[in-house]
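--- STAGE predict ---
source: upstream dedup step, 1 unique chain passed
mode: sequence only
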Amino acid sequence: GFQPFDYSKAGLYGDAAWVAIPTRFEYPPVEFAPLPPPPPPLEVSDDFEFTPAGSPPADAEVNVENRGDLIRVTDETAAGGTRSVKIQDAPGLQAAFNPHLVYKPNYTAGQAHCSFDLRLEPGAILFHEWRSWDVDPYRIGPSIWIRDGKLTVGGSPLLDLPTGQWFHVEITAKVGADADGKWALTVALPGESPRRFPDLAVASPEFKNFTWTGWCSMATDKTAFYLDNLRLKNE
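--- STAGE serialize ---
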């Protein structure tokens, strides 16, 4: 029932003395509240066993379009125990990087560690990376891509990965005031000795504070990957 009107004519009407009353008011200067402090550092040690199946993982930001894509705790498979996080892609999504799972560690000094178990389904395409989101544009630190069963860093393939099997990934890097532009990667495949890749160069030399980390599915078909035993800590 709203009837549009000419908002430019809105205001105070009436006798001139009446209309002039507000001009005599004096107001103190506007004082804005200070900016909120940055969030405290986040540490995560989650095997997802205490999160009900069908729920999102705790302490995480879940980005889905609900068009066949999903991010939820599942009891379909697990690296240990009975549950893991399933990240399922779907065709026809608006954003290529959806679905994606995000944590915000906010580490500004020392050495940061991120480790997780990963299981790929056929056709899975994903990247995992660290970012400094406190600057614009954001800066990228450690970054890995997985496509066609190959793990690559900076466009260079490092090793082949299995599908349908769990394997372990560990990433460490100095961050914030201690950042030195380097990071280290360790991958432990089933039945093999861990493969270590030290002194890798971060994607952006200006990467400092570790404020964002994500697992983004980049497939365009229905496929999935699973995460388990996720650890984030700062020393």
